[in-house]
From TrEMBL:
Native organism: Oncorhynchus mykiss (Rainbow trout)
Name of protein: ABC-2 type transporter transmembrane domain-containing protein
The organism's place on the tree of life at top rank: Eukaryota
Any GO molecular function: ABC-type transporter activity
One of the record's GO cellular component terms: plasma membrane
Record keyword DNA damage present: no
The keyword Transmembrane is annotated on this UniProt entry: yes
ABC-2 type transporter transmembrane domain: residues covered: 7-133
Pfam families xref list: ABC2_membrane_3
Location(s) in or outside the cell: Cell membrane
Signal peptide boundaries: 1-27
Keywords from the UniProt entry: Cell membrane, Membrane, Signal, Transmembrane, Transmembrane helix
Amino acid sequence: VWYLSRSLCFQFLLPVIQISLMCLCIGGDPKEIQVAVVNNETSSSSYSQSLLSFLDNSSVQQVNLSHAEAFSGAYNGEYWAVIGFGKNFTSYLTKRMIQRQVSKEVVDGGSVHVWLDLTNQQIAMMLQKKLADAFESVPSSGLRPV
């Protein structure tokens, strides 16, 4: 009876220990993921810089590049994503917030464009979640040009 209770205890505890160790070793978000940022805004006070400030800097490392350098680096595997802002992002975004109906050009110009490298689904999903969390926190904190 004593041996059976010990064996039964071992059988129930071993899977718990295995799962705990696996979660400790594998779990957690990746850190310092390189993301290329293409900011074509010419304005000194821009909403694009304000939006980028909401990103989690421990997980996402932003690298400011030109359009060609960003996509070349993403193609070569140096960057996991490219985040792009148009030339007049702040003015177009302001128009989108104020006016009810705007043209397709204004919608496109006031949008944040994100291209993800989908070769690693876990990193792509983590980046997508971090970007969504950052942009969802903007209304509660208030968007001010930097």
